[in-house]
Design goal:
The structure is a homodimer of 143-residue chains.
Chain A (H helix, E strand, L loop, with lengths): L1 H12 L6 E5 L5 E6 L2 H4 L6 H13 L8 E6 L3 H9 L4 E6 L24 E3 L4 H15 L1
Helix pairs in contact in A: 1-5
């Protein structure tokens, strides 16, 4: 999670909503790391999770990351939760819960919905304070 | 929808699940067109919708496609429905309903879920027969 938080801080420094993500291989080695790049890429799908998953799949040479874990500082939105399912991730570990925009424990609860073909193990609330402080600070500075 | 179906046919010819999508600007001009590229790109997020939306945003120079419409041959999955919301599309027109993998009228019903920040106008079932015949044919040939 430290590495994901570092990616979130780098995103904030670039003026992006501070969310960071890393993908770990089965040995716990980081094979992909990314922060939000929505503004820089002018791409609303350039969330940290999607970027890290695409990077990990490219590194692995396959779009099925069945033995990999994603660590992200914020509860994924419905788009990213759907992507996590498509990439067949083994485990999702996230920091802050997101009652407004989250799609795992909130909103459409993508993994719990009928028709979800792959449900990763989910561990939420890891380093929640640091992750949510980063977001709070970012939005306070912008006001 | 004809252009989206053409993209789906091209995807099938490449061995991809035949789904195609186009983005129209407010004048009805196609500014982006894509078919599924999951296998070719080894990217589980490379659905026709995501590719077309990213292409349209790049063409427009903004990640907010507020006056654009997406036409896609199949009901979007939760990932793509989430992306449609993030890109702030005006209207979603889709072909075949997808009771198993769909995320608009089925499964998590992303636009209807609490917390959904942007709900496009949705028109489903356009050229449904052609779109679903393409998919049926593809999966029959693969068996």
């Amino acid at each position: 999670m430290d590495h994901a938080l570092q990616q979130a801080r780098l995103a904030a420094a670039r003026g992006e909503v501070p969310v960071g993500a890393v993908v770990l291989d089965p040995h716990g080695v980081i094979i992909a790391a990314a922060g939000n790049q929505v503004e820089a890429d002018r791409d609303a799908s350039a969330h940290a999770e999607i970027l890290a998953l695409r990077m990990a799949a490219a590194q692995r040479g396959t779009h099925r990351l069945v033995d990999c874990d994603l660590v992200v500082t914020l509860e994924p939105c419905p788009m990213c939760a759907g992507a996590i399912s498509h990439f067949r991730l083994r485990r999702l570990i996230f920091g802050a819960y997101d009652p407004k925009g989250g799609g795992v424990e909130h909103g459409p609860r993508v993994f719990a919905a009928p028709g979800c073909l792959h449900r990763p193990e989910v561990i939420g609330g890891v380093a929640e304070t640091e992750a949510s402080d980063l977001l709070r600070q970012f939005f306070r500075d912008r006001r």
